[in-house]
Amino acid sequence: MWKLSGFVRTLKRFYSSRTIFALSSGQGKCGVAVIRISGPKSGEALKKLTNMKNMPEPRLANLRSIRNPITQEILDKGLVLWFPGPKSFTGEDSFELHVHGGLAVINSILNALGTIDNVRAAEAGEFTKKAFHNGKLDLTEVEGLADLLQAETEAQRKQAFLQTQGSLSRFYNNWKEILVKCVAHIEAHIDFDETETLDLGILLGVARDVKKLRDEIENHLKDGRKGETLRNGVKTVILGEPNVGKSSLLNLLCQRPAAIVTPIEGTTRDILEVTLNIGGYPLVLADTAGLRLKTDDLVEKEGIKRALSMYEQADLILLLTGADKYSLWLEKNPESTFQDYLQNYVESLKLSNFLDKKNFIVVLNKTDLLPNFDGEENLIPISCKTEQGVTNLVENITGELKKLCGEPSKEHPSMNQIRHRQNLINCLENLDLFLKYVGKTEDFNGDMVLLAEYLRKSLKSLGKLVGTVTNEQLLDVIFGDFCIGK
Ligand SMILES: Nc1nc2c(ncn2[C@@H]2O[C@H](COP(=O)(O)OP(=O)(O)O)[C@@H](O)[C@H]2O)c(=O)[nH]1
Ligand SMILES: [Mg+2]
């Protein structure tokens, strides 16, 4: 055990010994650029760049000339902000320069910083890595920060922001504390109770806590689909027979002619994907080849195969049909309902078990061709041509997205990465092994050492989740997601 903490200490020393700098604002010309410096040499670097005798007041902006420390040439005039550790993002001494955002200005200042001994350019995510090693952020908060930088919609921003504020980490640390107590109770028993009879009361209490915890984790895992779906975007596929207006609908929803629309059947072959923001939720919308059974065209056949495979993977399905086709069918089958038509339609498209799927919206397009259409339950009438009904469709899609992604909240944060899922499943498995081994607690006479081992393994999974148990490979993956300067 202490070998590991020795390793962590070495790592910490390694990371905190370096002083790094980077452009933290975006690349390219801009009004103001922010350059960040962090590490033990920060104070010295600041003095060298500004010729200040004393350190400026912490966290207050100072307007200063910024110089090349060797030539003393003034490179720009800008704001200097001094953040002495530990009250800084990284937990170390650090400062920011807010300078003019021209490329030559930025380069001259980065070059000037590079002339200072033991100060070097940062790698991607290195500032955040320092913050992690200095205990400013745990691993789920680091991931939240990476997601916050990537977030494209309001709901994603909310989930990521809450995570940076410790919504998940509070959850997991609370579970960790419960488990630590359970382990302590069992281990105390092993240490002191070798000869005496087992205190069943203690074991009963621990088993009860473990049972409650495993149920909570199981619930959290179920709910986690929502967080994952929100983080990755809701995979949505438009399906239907050829020429019902699938590509027209995609174009309408993304407000640009992304897909080719023609009256020729079989126009769309490849899957065409666009990412949209609908009601603050991320929608990854796929247009597909029209489903028809009889085609000799090899390319179209492959397109249909791909459409059917999207059908299997999608979170949400928009099933499209045409008002012209529906009215023809009504003429032939005057007694039937839309439900009958739908049944027949999905069978003819070979969409197996469609009506058993939970998340689909049936859309009747081209209602402009059917002026007397009264509407039906469970179907959204639209016309891509006149745009009638599209607002209603978007509202319905938003409703589905809310169901699929949930509404991020501090009280019920959702796990949202495979890494979270794996560690929680490992934790759950060991808790279940514990409970199985305890069996009927009233007549337990098994091995306490083994029990403690199961709990310790679950605890280790939670440790991996928040980052108290870690390895460099995993950290490289997580911090590799950041850009330089963060
Ligand atoms: N009248 C009418 N025609 C439409 C409507 N939506 C699409 N179309 C036409 O139907 C044809 C097929 O459209 P397209 O989007 O390519 O269908 P897809 O094969 O399902 O992708 C094109 O000629 C479109 O202009 C609509 O709402 N009303
Ligand atoms: Mg098409």
What is the third-level CATH name, the topology of the largest domain? Four Helix Bundle (Hemerythrin (Met), subunit A)
CATH class of the largest domain: Mainly Alpha
Unreliable stretches:
none
Q: With helices defined by DSSP (H or I, 4 residues minimum), what is the helix count?
A: 16
The SS-based structural class is alpha/beta
User: How many beta-strand elements?
Assistant: 12
The oligomeric state of the chains shown is: single chain
The 3D shape can be described as: flat
Cα distance spanning the termini: 32 Å
In this entry the ligands are: guanosine-5'-diphosphate, magnesium ion
The amount of beta strand, in percent, is: 15-25%
Total domains: 3
Give me the CATH architecture of the largest domain, please.
Up-down Bundle
InterPro entries: G_TrmE, GTP-bd, GTP-bd_TrmE_N, GTPase_MnmE, MnmE_dom2, MnmE_helical, P-loop_NTPase, Small_GTP-bd
Family: Belongs to the TRAFAC class TrmE-Era-EngA-EngB-Septin-like GTPase superfamily. TrmE GTPase family.
Protein name: TrmE-type G domain-containing protein
Domain TrmE-type G: 233-402
